[in-house]
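Bench log. Compound arrived from synthesis this morning; before running ITC I wanted a structural hypothesis for how glutathione sits in the protein. Inputs:
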Amino acid sequence: MIRKILRRVLGRALFGNMLRIVNYSTLPKPIIRSSEAQQKINKQTDNLALYQFETCPFCIKVTRFMHQNALNIELRNTRNDHNHKTDLVTFGGKYQVPCLRITQENNEDNWLYESDDIILYLKNLT
Ligand SMILES: N[C@@H](CCC(=O)N[C@@H](CS)C(=O)NCC(=O)O)C(=O)O
């Protein structure tokens, strides 16, 4: 039983870290915008933060999209920072990453789960 759990945990860690290495070594080149266009998009993403961790395949999907589209969004690692995890669970409603925190002008937050929905939201900004 313990061996089975150990094998599963180690397998996941190995898979996640391999994914992380493959991701870093195959990162596509980001698009280049004029500085005005980049400043405009930076303003649009200023109110966003992505809760994630590096070995999560769904998070990698979103962060690759961000990288490719030169979207400068703050990354909040829920594995390394307990406060980020607590915020995600308390205010977002559940512990699932990736999750995009969208702070509106009235300072209220929307918590957007699901990698495909996050990418769709970001696509509409670009
Ligand atoms: N359908 C979701 C799946 C997200 C998902 O399964 N995330 C995992 C990490 S890879 C998670 O948050 N698991 C909760 C945990 O680690 O406790 C998506 O596409 O975003």
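What the model suggests: The mean pLDDT is 93. The beta strands are 48-52, 74-77, 99-103, 109-113.
ITC booked for Thursday regardless.
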